[in-house]
Amino acid sequence: MTEQQSPAAVGGDVRLTGIGKTYGSFTAVHPLDLTVPQGSFFALLGASGCGKTTTLRMIAGLEEPTSGTVLIGGQDVTALPPYKRPVNTVFQSYALFPHLDIFENVAFGLRRRGRKDVKKQVEDMLELVELGQYARRKPHQLSGGQQQRVAVARALINHPQVLLLDEPLGALDLKLRRQMQLELKRIQTEVGITFVHVTHDQEEAMTMADTIAVMNGGRVEQLGAPAELYENPATTFVANFLGQSNLLPADVTGGAGEDLLLSAAGARLTVPRARCATEARRVHLGVRPEKITIEHGSAEVAEGRNRLAGTVVDSSFIGVSTQYLVRTEGGQEVTVFEQNMERDARVVPGAPVVLHWNPAHSFALDAAQAIDAGTGEAAA
Ligand SMILES: Nc1ncnc2c1ncn2[C@@H]1O[C@H](COP(=O)(O)OP(=O)(O)O)[C@@H](O)[C@H]1O
Ligand SMILES: [Mg+2]
Questions:
Q1: How far apart are CA 29 and CA 138, in angstroms?
Q2: Rounded Cα distance, 233 and 369, in Å
Q3: What is the pLDDT of residues 205-235, one digit of tens each?
């Protein structure tokens, strides 16, 4: 494989500058700037209709941008047709040739370009995707996951600098999808080229990508490493779309050193200034459900923790953890995930409880944003 990879090593960074797309008066993608470093696994994540496929197709050359430029490996490819760009695309519908066997499906690009040493290259590629023993089968004799790997092999054999993947695992059932996520990640690490992966599945993006661009309504809302987006969401959409967040309407009442003092849910809480994404006085105070400790109402809480008193409304045991819904004294509902270690038998629906967490695990967002953006319950 190594010597075949050399063209890709030249440089597969993707640079989008002011790239945008309108259809008549509708803006599918607002002009955006984005750099995908060479060799990275990059995910475009967002709900259906947010402009992911349009963005990917503009990189591929399958869609003509209304504005902006596309650079791949430093070369301006904006005016080039798809086949002259150093990219290949894998779609959700694998689009394998049904009448050709697996070997010939993978060999297709090489044969069309009149290349020699086809056999060795195809064999190497089938080995990479762990389908060596299936070379003489037809596509319909393979499982969905195996067919998807053939589609990846067929794209990679052309030595693109960048592989574009549009919801490639969308047709697979959950278990197979999880398996293929790890498989694709392994292949990407092995070949070392840039992958741009489109998905609406936040867990998939977090599992696979080095960097995620979260898209909403044709814009990139936030870009960063999975853990960074999760711990430091910059908008309510990102806070709700990536995992789950408790967002409490709060008023900033003052400051104390590094911290802001807030009044929320009938209590006085704090958040580090560094974790406040806004100067506004009205904010949404955020905390992830697993950061909160839930204890029976009689428990003592250590100094310096954020603390809310409430009543358990609902609890559901889901094996690895228990999920509680708690109504605070201020009338807000807060979700808490507690790992199953030592459960307090008194913490049941109706019981008085106290919730507490480290203020460093809170974040504050401008209250001008819809509090339920990205929950699936928000108006589209
Ligand atoms: N050819 C087209 N004509 C008009 N509208 C389009 C066309 N292609 C896509 N759109 C619209 O642009 C928006 C973004 O589409 P798309 O990029 O496919 O979203 P995603 O892949 O995130 O689901 C959608 O609202 C879609 O309906
Ligand atoms: Mg799409």
A1: 39
A2: 13
A3: 999 999 999 999 999 999 999 999 999 999 9
Mutate to test the pocket of ligand 1, among 30, 32, 53, 63 (most ligand atoms within 8 A of CB): 53
Identify the CATH assignment for 244-379 out of 1.10.260.40, 2.40.30.20, 2.40.50.100, 3.40.50.300. Answer: 2.40.50.100
State pTM to two decimals. 0.90
> Quick one: the chain helix, strand, coil %, rounded to 5?
30, 35, 35
Residue nearest to atom 14 of ligand 1 (CA): 51
Fold held by 6-231: Rossmann fold (3.40.50)
List residues near ligand 1 (CB under 6 A).
23, 26, 28, 46, 48-54
Model pLDDT for residues 286-335, shown as the tens digit of each residue: 999 999 999 999 889 999 999 999 999 999 999 999 999 999 998 999 99
**Position in ligand 1 atom list of the atom nearest CA 26:** 5
Distance 110 CA to ligand 2 centre (A): 29
- Side-chain-side CA neighbours of 268 within 13 Å: the count stands at 9
